[in-house]
Design goal:
The protein has six helices and eleven strands. It is an alpha/beta fold and 236 residues long. It has two domains: 68 residues, Hypothetical PUA domain-like, domain 1 (Ribosomal Protein L25, Chain P, Beta Barrel), CATH 2.40.240.20; 155 residues, 3-Layer(aba) Sandwich (Alpha/beta knot).
Length: 236
């Protein structure tokens, strides 16, 4: 699959000459050692893309020609993952894995037992993970949310599922329809979602499900949940 880079001023007209000169361009030149004649992808992060061919490599930029362009429609199900903030490197790992799983929105949650802090670099992590996974749409990473704000989001969703080890309902039993436009998945912290938080989510309309027998790390649970729900909803 062709290497992907993001630009703010995406050229879309076939035959157009474009000066590729952002940090991604410098990475392509210095690290990837791209040469004249190589073909790769540029995208705007919101679905629009162009296939381009390099013909002039400069010190800090390159000139490319657009050889094809198009637009990738969003999937019918918008997936939002509420992720209790893990500590340090595990927070970055969680953002990377959720991006690779294809989520549309990541909401860091200030859970009672969260021990991590939200970083301004989360959005950068999502952008870099999007390039690595060749996804044309960069997920939105929101500001940190409170439990009350999560409850409001639950009410606005078509299906909200909180994963908890105390649940006696399997995930597969929570899916009664494939027509889910707005899906919300809630992943708790390493110490678990508190009974008070869980009751608040239930009262707001969320279902509580068990994710198998093994207890996953908070940073890893999100990608497992997204994969399982996406398969059940036939998003994948």
């Amino acid at each position: 699959m062709l290497t992907l880079f993001f630009v703010e001023d995406l050229p879309t007209q076939v035959g157009q000459i474009y000066e590729f000169d952002n940090e991604d361009a410098q990475h392509a030149i210095r690290v990837l050692r791209m040469a004249a004649g190589e073909v790769f992808m540029l995208a705007d992060g919101s679905g629009a893309w162009s296939q381009v061919k390099a013909f002039a490599i400069l010190k800090r930029s390159m000139q490319v020609e657009v050889i094809a362009s198009g637009y990738q429609e969003a999937l019918p199900t918008t997936i939002t993952v509420v992720q209790a903030v893990p500590k340090s490197d595990r927070a970055k790992e969680a953002i990377e894995l959720l991006t690779e799983a294809g989520v549309d929105r990541i909401v860091p949650w200030a859970a009672s037992r969260s021990i991590g802090k939200v970083s301004e670099k989360f959005a950068i992590t999502a952008r870099e993970a999007s390039k690595q996974s060749r996804r044309l749409r960069i997920p939105e990473v929101t500001d940190i949310a409170t439990t009350e704000q999560i409850c409001e989001a639950i009410k606005l969703s078509d299906l909200a599922i909180a994963f908890h080890e105390s649940a006696d309902i399997k995930l597969s039993d929570c899916i009664s329809s494939h027509n889910v436009a707005n899906l919300l998945i809630i992943i708790g912290p390493e110490g678990g979602i508190t009974p008070t938080e869980l009751d608040a989510f239930k009262e707001a309309g969320a279902k509580v499900a068990l994710m198998g027998r093994a207890i996953l790390r908070s940073a890893h649970a999100g990608i497992a949940a997204v994969a399982a729900v996406s398969a059940l909803l036939k998003v994948w």
